[in-house]
Write a structure and sequence with these properties.
With about 210 residues, the chain is of the alpha/beta class. The structure holds 1-O-pyrophosphono-5-O-phosphono-alpha-D-ribofuranose (PRP) and uracil.
Length: about 210
Amino acid sequence: MKTYKNVFIFDHPLIKHKISILRDKNTGMKEFRELVEEITTIMTYESMRDVQLVPVEVETPLEKTVQYKVADDSIAIVPILRAGLGMVNGVHKVFPTAKVGHIGMYRDERTLQPQEYYCKLPEGIENKTVFLIDPMLATGGSASDALDALKKRGCKKIKFMAIIAAPKGIETVAENHPDVPVYVSTLDRQLNENGYILPGLGDAGDRLFGTK
Ligand code: PRP
Ligand code: URA
């Protein structure tokens, strides 16, 4: 796979540990959901190294000092439905006041083409840093179209975060959206003939919500 300036693959040992458990077919729904949330929280810290801070005056018990905080109301989270929902709490652990928008996309199982079925975004999202989240980046169609949808609605500063990616998904998003930093926890080998990531973890939405 080519390398891309806008793609960041974490090789964090704690994330590796948690992903091993996540992949295991014997990991049940509750543990799966908790792991997705925990991995997302670690990823959020790592991907926000460039977050914009504003100076604030703080009075310690000893003196006044100028310190730095994340600007109020500057972050929005947009999960790609359904599986992205599993990552929302993980970002909220770090930014509890972030507003949440939703984009509904599903992959047509035959063509693997993404279909948008829902989009509801917080007011003023165009002036926020937007975290688009989805645990799986397979062909990249869903993420790439969701990024188009956000840009069409005026979003200018977007970060995309996925837990597991296939090379094809990285290429699609990185090439269609070179302005969007893409953060993934691990890069897997390939897609199978049904567009599933190998070794992957199966269907993230089904494992999060117990639908199969
Ligand atoms: C999964 C996943 C991504 C998409 C990735 O969703 O959560 O949104 O597939 O595949 P792609 O990169 O090839 O587009 P799915 O369509 O299965 O819907 P779900 O979240 O409702 O299960
Ligand atoms: N969506 C999933 O949930 N898993 C995959 O492996 C690919 C797409």
